């Protein structure tokens, strides 16, 4: 949408390049190409995947670029949203998933003695969360995609509580919700989200799915009380077939909801196709709030906790003082000890009603050769299911780490005494990728493990 594109200097394993510029057929070489969203895979894992499986990671800004990549043979596998995957299936661009090739799942997926083939009669509830099961009611999703991560649309912000009645997710805990239209009304009435010195303080992920979803959710007459699940789902059916005029219409609907220069000032909204950019701006305080996905908010908080953000020096606003709980925001402290004593920014999230879940899955190009397909399944096994049977051990270990996280000496002494467990699964790609990306796991046991950690804090 006219925004500056951010390109990464390529390594051997990853490169940012528009799909339209790729015309080679990857079947001519042993190299495999994985196409995914920016900041959507652990970069160390991407490097290791290249070394072990010759899989190069290419980043796109819109997953619909994969249509050209698959049809030309440029991409061998890709991470797609559910709506894009369904469209790719209809275009004949993807292969059916052979679930029998995932050894950790073979016994779990058997349903009363009949495992079925390619998504038929599988016991999905033994492996995946209830949310994924709902997505799997569509055969295009269960037959053609391996679930990667779940996410839900949320509003992330810092400073004073936006709601005074507890209807928000403080520290990412589940709570009551309010309608999206009421939430937007709260946001536009809050001074901190209004344009300051010509720069917007409110952000949003710039992609078709987010724009479409928020424009629909912001319409008060469609999102208020008494709405059943089937009616909620109907709101998003048209997203599958969006014309260019319909796409731009979403901007006007968001504008009509109150997110406009009349309510928020000139340049009321900062848009970026890369959610990591928004996470960093939230982390630094450059944005006061943003419509992002839950993993983006968690990523911003992780950067803050790890000290990876240099916050804006101008902290004169009341909410910044409340947030930092500190009257001294000068640059008088350069030492680690002084920085560690300063309270850190806290990212809070609110989810409107209805909760809007998204599932991203990994799909395989229909043009992949049998030889490459075998290598792809080896990669998917390692990325998606390695350590599947070790979540209970991991949960026990991580709860202990959380309790001792403020006492580095205790942690060091444990390592010196050789108490580190070798087989808890924490070094698996599955765990490492989650810790980097922070979106909701699709696997049932993994999701339960994470929820247990949260409840135990």
TrEMBL record:
Residues 220-239, 308-345, 400-427 are annotated as: Disordered. This is Spermidine/putrescine ABC transporter substrate-binding protein. It comes from the Bacteria. InterPro entries: Uncharacterised_lipoprot_MG045. Keywords: Signal. Coiled coil: none annotated. The keyword Acetylation does not apply. The keyword Signal applies.
